[in-house]
Amino acid sequence: MNRCMVRLGTFVSALTLLAACATEQMSRGIYEGSRGYNKSIESTPLEKSKNELPPYDQFKKERDEGKQ
Fold this sequence. Notes:
Number of strands: 0
Largest sheet: none
Number of domains: 1
Structural class: mainly alpha
Shape: elongated
Helix content: over 70%
Strand content: under 5%
């Protein structure tokens, strides 16, 4: 029974790690996709004057600093 619990714990830990990695990549993909979309619709001078979004890493750093 003890061996079964160890395997179950290892499995749950691996799943948790994979879920965390997937969430980070999904957030990055959504952010970078919307950033690319914003660049693609910049066709008028008014839209070109808007501030460009920073890269995801910079955005995440600024967001995390704001939480503190």
